Amino acid sequence: MSDGSPAGDKSGDLVGYTAKVIKNIEDERKVDIIGIGIQDRNVARYYKQHQIINDASQIEPALLSLTERYRDWE
Prior knowledge:
By secondary structure, this protein is an alpha+beta fold. It contains three helices and two strands; from the N terminus they run H-E-H-E-H.
C-alpha cells in the first residue's frame, strides 16, 4: 500500500522514478497494481487503476469494488 506521494531523503527525481516503476509493473502485467488514495488524488497521477476515498473506513468497500471491476481489465 502507498499513499501515492513519493517521498524520501535522497536526492533525485522521486516523482519520475515512482511513475516509471508503476508503469513498468502495469506494462509487464505479471501482477496487478491498484492505487487507493485516502483524501488524496495523487494516486490518479500514477496508477491506471485507482480509486479515491474520503475515509479509511472506506478501504474495504473500495477494495471489493475494484476487485469486481478487475474482470473488465483483462
